Amino acid sequence: MDTLGAMPGTGPNTGVLRVVRKAAPAHFDQLPTDRTLIMGVLNITPDSFSDGGRFVTDGKVDHELAVKAGLALHQAGADIVDVGGESTRPGATPTKAREERERIITAVQALFTAGALVSVDTRHPETAEAAIAAAPHRDAVLINDVSGLVTDPAMPELVARTGVRVIITHNRDVPETMQDHAVYDDVVAEVLAELDQIRRRYLDAGVAQERIIVDPGIGFAKTAEQSWTLLRHLDRFTADGTRVLLGVSRKGFLGELLADSSGRRPAEGRDAATLALTALAADAGVWAVRVHDVEANLDAVRVIAQLRT
């Protein structure tokens, strides 16, 4: 895929923002249907649990570095690049919508120019609307909202009005306090029921059923054991043909599992464990996995696809 005029830094005036070549825009209907999809993670934040601070230092965004990283995910084979400007890890401090937009919009525009399909990870309708406006068409962009039961009422209205697709995530509260609500009698049944409540808000706003993707929200308002229980029952989420996104890459519950005498395994040491769960997800028929290491996870889903033929 030829989207760069030269490798950044190989000649005069060849910074990555200046050499992105326009490619044919991606379209949702062009995505592979014979395997689980790969969504690559681009967090342009100072405080995300795995890659926070890579592109934001002292409040300043290195847009050129962020664009380069996003294009690398695209060129590595990511079917979708998920761009976020606000950390939603448990306990994270909220980011204002304006600051979030300023962090991500340059990368979002560059990815569209390069022909990438972009998912925008945001709880803010204003940010979602700006990303939709930057897209070449409505089927080049997804909105990935992890708000769950506290979704802003304006988000379903926006999705219905613009006709884009949306990922809805099970969650019970905002990042600062969501872990206070990790209390369930039957976590699988309750997550399924509450996802239906969230889905109903979008349906009632006029969003078509087929444009809604669901995410069980591993780690959002859930303990480690509750997350493992959900993973043991992924077939309950995919049983009716619902498209499911699974986001487990490098998450804290894997760090707890792999802990040793020095403490939890650091985020960058959790990729092999992530691959194991990607294979599990692919075998369960999950629509897409959201991951940091694109190439390795793409290999994993291709292997499972071959075994299922």
Automatic annotation (TrEMBL):
Protein known as: Dihydropteroate synthase
State what this protein does: Catalyzes the condensation of para-aminobenzoate (pABA) with 6-hydroxymethyl-7,8-dihydropterin diphosphate (DHPt-PP) to form 7,8-dihydropteroate (H2Pte), the immediate precursor of folate derivatives.
In its UniProt record, a GO molecular function of this protein is:
dihydropteroate synthase activity
Q: Which residues form a coiled coil?
A: none
Where does the Pterin-binding domain lie?
Answer: 36-302
Q: Give the family this protein belongs to, as stated in its UniProt record.
A: Belongs to the DHPS family.
Protein's gene: folP
Give the pathway: Cofactor biosynthesis; tetrahydrofolate biosynthesis; 7,8-dihydrofolate from 2-amino-4-hydroxy-6-hydroxymethyl-7,8-dihydropteridine diphosphate and 4-aminobenzoate: step 1/2
Task: Give yes or no: UniProt keyword Transferase.
Answer: yes
| Keywords (A to Z) from UniProt | Folate biosynthesis, Magnesium, Metal-binding, Transferase
Q: Please state what class of enzyme this protein is.
A: transferase
Q: Write down the PANTHER family for this protein, in alphabetical order.
A: FOLATE SYNTHESIS PROTEINS, FOLIC ACID SYNTHESIS PROTEIN FOL1
Q: What is its EC number?
A: 2.5.1.15
Q: Which cofactor does it need?
A: Mg(2+)
Instruction: Name the catalysed reactions.
Output: (7,8-dihydropterin-6-yl)methyl diphosphate + 4-aminobenzoate = 7,8-dihydropteroate + diphosphate
